[in-house]
UniProtKB/TrEMBL annotation, chain A:
Flavoprotein is among the record's keywords: no
PROSITE patterns reported in the protein's UniProt record: 2FE2S_FER_1, 2FE2S_FER_2
Gene Ontology molecular function terms on file: 2 iron, 2 sulfur cluster binding; metal ion binding; oxidoreductase activity
Record-annotated 2Fe-2S ferredoxin-type domain positions: 1-78
Superkingdom field: Bacteria
Keyword Iron-sulfur recorded: yes
Organism of this sequence: Streptomyces fumanus
Name recorded for this polypeptide: Oxidoreductase
Keywords: 2Fe-2S, Iron, Iron-sulfur, Metal-binding, Oxidoreductase
One Pfam family it belongs to: Fer2_2
UniProtKB/TrEMBL annotation, chain B:
PANTHER family reported for this sequence: XANTHINE DEHYDROGENASE SUBUNIT C-RELATED (PTHR42659)
Entry GO MF terms: FAD binding; oxidoreductase activity
Protein name from the UniProt record: Carbon monoxide dehydrogenase
Keyword terms: FAD, Flavoprotein, Oxidoreductase
Residue ranges of domain FAD-binding PCMH-type in the record: 1-169
Superkingdom, natural source: Bacteria
Organism: Streptomyces fumanus
InterPro entries: CO_DH_flav_C, CO_DH_flav_C_dom_sf, Diverse_Substr_Oxidored, FAD-bd_PCMH, FAD-bd_PCMH-like_sf, FAD-bd_PCMH_sub1, FAD-bd_PCMH_sub2, Mopterin_DH_FAD-bd
Amino acid sequence: MRVNFTVNGRPQEADDVWEGESLLYVLRERLGLPGSKNACEQGECGSCTVRLDGVPVCSCLVAAGQAEGREVVTVEGLAEYARERAGGTPAQDSGLAPIQQAFLDAGAVQCGFCTPGLLVAADEMLERNPTPSDADIREALSGNLCRCTGYEKIMDAVRLAAARQSEGV
Amino acid sequence: MDFLRPASWEEALAAKAEHPTAVPIAGGTDVMVEINFDHRRPEYLMDLNRVGELAEWEVGEETVRLGASVPYTRIMDHLRAELPGLALAAHTVASPQIRNRGGVGGNLGTASPAGDAHPALLAAGAEVEVVSVRGTRMIPVDAFYTGVKRNALAPDELIRAVHIRKADGPQQFAKVGTRNAMVIAVCAFGLALHPETRTVRTGIGSAAPTPVRATAAEEFLNAALEEGGFWDSGKVVTPSVAKRFAQLCSAACNPIDDVRGTASYRRHAIGVLARRTLTWTWESYRTAERKGGVA
Ligand SMILES: Cc1cc2nc3c(=O)[nH]c(=O)nc-3n(C[C@H](O)[C@H](O)[C@H](O)COP(=O)(O)OP(=O)(O)OC[C@H]3O[C@@H](n4cnc5c(N)ncnc54)[C@H](O)[C@@H]3O)c2cc1C
Ligand code: FES
Ligand code: FES
């Protein structure tokens, strides 16, 4: 079947989609967007997290056909999404979203496999809750597993992004 | 495989009547796992996301009519006052991403004994609104679970909503697992005090082939509270009463040994959860009574 939906602000059309295929598969294998990672295909790890009409979901558990006509944001579109949310102010010099820059600055990326999902989830939390407590951060990221960092640097990164956001940096 | 995409509830019912083997997919958090791992290859997959009313709820006089696909996140954010037990249970489901998609209709569709909504529904009191082109049935939730991962739905039927009694007193939900997030219950327990009828209702998860109520325990506690005048006096529940209640809740279990826990551990843990949730809810009731208000 054919699926039409918007990805990172652009209309996309995927053809020859198998009816049981996941949104994750379509993004990675048909649309050439391998940022969302496939680690478990059962909702356990969060590395495939994308926003579906603004809501963070595991794209491995959304049937491709369910995305018809809807808007998806993946890690590839995160910088642009954050820029528009900030009222069109230019992205950082790096071209990264603030949450991406904070992950780099805090050393929150090791192998990087979990990073795209964490970035999407953390960015959404900061949009909803600009001054999160540590408990809020843990809760918001409780659906994302990381095998490398031990999470402390990830916590640092999100705190850093929140602090920069509130200082308007 | 065919992908059916009904745009309205009527279309969905017609499609299910025409293709009774069609597998509905709402949040997909159970269905997609089965498809991804090739445990299920349905002939027809039927998307319910385009049926808007399934994601809506109505708060009535006595009950909340909760659309089958209202995500857990919504229940936590908007229905905590009316459905405190279910909101607590919803918060223990998986992770934010899963709670943004999954809902009670899917939990009932899967009818796993470990589904977290079930103990809360059993304790609050609920009816499942089940519809086909032939008409509507209201099934008491106690009668909805018919076996391990089996429910009372006929092949042409869909769940439209669940009618859950609004809380008239404190409710609790407690779950045993290895950590807070992403945990399938080793066992779970829901308890609701109903001061208006001076009754207590329970729900046990993951400790029998289906979710069950501990009816003998409820009857014992109802009688003990009534006889001792506890509802009026608001005094502390006698330890011997709480202990007996816990024993009867354990006795209502019919658990198995599996990777998550042994049968005897589950029986024991249900007793602990029963006593704990009774203490918590009764404390809230007493506090509210002392303040002169209704809980
Ligand atoms: C990583 C992970 C962790 C999980 N943890 C928990 C947990 O802690 N607690 C818990 O209870 N569950 C858990 N689950 C299971 C799942 O999230 C829940 O059962 C959820 O409620 C399913 O809802 P859904 O809308 O996603 O269902 P779907 O997957 O869309 O459907 C589930 C079943 O219900 C049927 N169905 C759906 N809607 C209807 C309808 N309107 N009428 C008739 N049939 C219908 C479907 O055909 C299917 O058989 C977990 C799942 C995952 C992937
Ligand atoms: S790949 Fe989707 S949650 Fe792990
Ligand atoms: S950095 Fe390797 S999994 Fe998180």
